[in-house]
Specification:
Blueprint (H helix, E strand, L loop, with lengths): L3 E2 L18 H11 L1 H14 L1 H5 L6 E13 L2 E13 L4 H67 L5 H35 L31 H23 L4 E10 L14 E8 L6 H68 L5 H36 L7 E2 L1
Antiparallel strand pairs: 1-6, 2-3, 3-4, 4-5
Helix pairs in contact: 1-4, 2-4, 4-5, 4-6, 4-8, 6-7, 7-8
Length: 415
């Protein structure tokens, strides 16, 4: 496998570093670029790519040099030195089989990288939607605080006019204090969440994050037919099973003889005691070496081991597919549930606003209880906060569907 992926080229951007992130997609790209876990997984994939060139190479040739301390006399003269070179060759197809095993394992590492990347992006999306929820809660709480101040002023004006009770003012103060505390708690929670979000992007913990003021939802009758077949975890196990099958084939080939071809070159000195034909002629001798794999037990064990591993990976893939499918169904339910709750809470907000307007009008005319006004106001706030929570749950469930189906931010592959 010769392809690589580049962190600097994605489907969603043309340049990086000179823009200020404004959308979730921008933050996801920053996470892909910066997150240490994603970069570590990618480095593991790059390292795995370097295995194939190693295993498909021939073993290094051997060179032997021998010098005779005492000359060995031959008919043509004394042997002075010997040079031997030998190159071993594995059985036909062995190198290709080794490369195939390494390539499939590298592909499995690539899928493991995709899984790590998608998991980080799901975490980024989830934190982003939590920040959206907190932003909405801050807005509703601040509006509630301002409205309660207006209610307090209204109660004071009625007390001054002699038509109201001081207890109404105190009740408004009590609820204002609750709202102030609620704002403080949300701000503290937002600081923690902001630090967690920026940690995923490997940025300063206090760096600002831009979130939208509103989100869009799918129609209530939207149909989900997404499958988990493209989930990187399944593809990783599939590649590992294929690698194990390839290793089984490799074990068969490694059980065949290895052949060595070599050459001996002997330097022969001249004879001085007599004249012979070809006096002092050096000797050249071709050599052939064949290994004898007669101990077959280890090769049989390697084949069985590879077969068991392949079966294990295939069973794990089947089990994981069932698990992911169940999780996907749960995510579909979460989307449907969030849509239903959103409709309910929005209707409740609308109804509560109508009731509240009627109560306020009656209170101004001294025809209703101020405590009832405050109660409905708190119910309205509760439903507004619930809308924000349901929207965040809805968006998170959609992000999880993308994660389970392997659809999260696909990148170009370079071959």
């Amino acid at each position: 496998m010769d392809y690589k992926i580049s962190f600097l080229t994605g489907l969603f951007f043309l340049y990086f570093g000179s823009i200020e992130a404004q959308t979730l997609e921008d933050y996801l790209l920053i996470a892909v670029e910066n997150n240490p876990q994603v970069k570590a997984a990618y480095s593991e994939f790059e390292a795995a790519l370097q295995e194939a060139p190693q295993v498909k190479s021939l073993p290094d040739p051997t060179l032997t040099v021998s010098a005779f301390g005492q000359m060995v006399e031959t008919r043509l003269g004394p042997q002075e030195a010997r040079f031997s070179i030998m190159q071993m060759f594995p059985w036909f197809g062995t190198l290709e089989a080794r490369e195939n095993v390494a390539t499939l394992m590298a592909e499995a590492k690539f899928k493991a990288f995709l899984e790590t990347r998608n998991e980080i992006l799901l975490q980024v999306s989830s934190k982003y939607y939590e920040l959206y929820e907190l932003g909405q809660q801050l807005q509703y709480q601040q509006e509630n605080l301002d409205i309660l101040q207006n209610y307090k002023d209204l109660a004071l004006s009625r007390v001054s006019a002699g038509s109201g009770a001081l207890s109404d003012v105190l009740q408004a103060d009590i609820m204002r204090n609750e709202s102030i505390t609620g704002l403080d708690v949300i701000r503290l929670r937002k600081d923690v969440l902001l630090a967690q979000f920026n940690a995923l992007l490997d940025r300063e913990r206090s760096e600002a994050v831009v979130v939208p003021n509103e989100v869009e939802t799918l129609p209530e009758n939207a149909i989900f037919d997404t499958l988990v077949d493209n989930n990187p975890q399944l593809e990783e196990l599939e590649n590992m099973a294929a690698s194990a099958r390839a290793r089984e084939e490799l074990a068969k080939k490694e059980g065949m003889p290895n052949v060595g071809l070599g050459l001996d070159y002997v330097i022969v000195g001249e004879r001085r005691d007599m004249a012979v034909e070809d006096n002092g002629r050096d000797a050249i001798m071709p050599m052939l070496t064949v290994s004898l794999p007669i101990f077959r037990g280890k090769y049989k064990a390697e084949r069985k081991q590879a077969a068991f591993l392949a079966e294990s990976y295939e069973q794990r893939k089947e089990g994981l597919k069932n698990q992911l499918s169940a999780e996907l169904e749960a995510a579909f339910f979460e989307v449907r549930e969030a849509q239903a709750m959103l409709q309910l809470y929005r209707r409740q907000v609308e109804s509560s606003e109508q009731v509240l307007n009627l109560l306020l009008s009656s209170y101004r005319n001294a025809a209703s209880d101020f405590e009832e006004v405050l109660r409905v106001r708190q119910e309205l706030l509760k439903y507004q906060l619930a809308v924000a929570g349901a929207e965040a749950n809805y968006l998170t469930a959609l992000a999880r569907i993308d994660y389970l189906s392997g659809k999260t931010l696909d990148y170009d592959r370079q071959k």
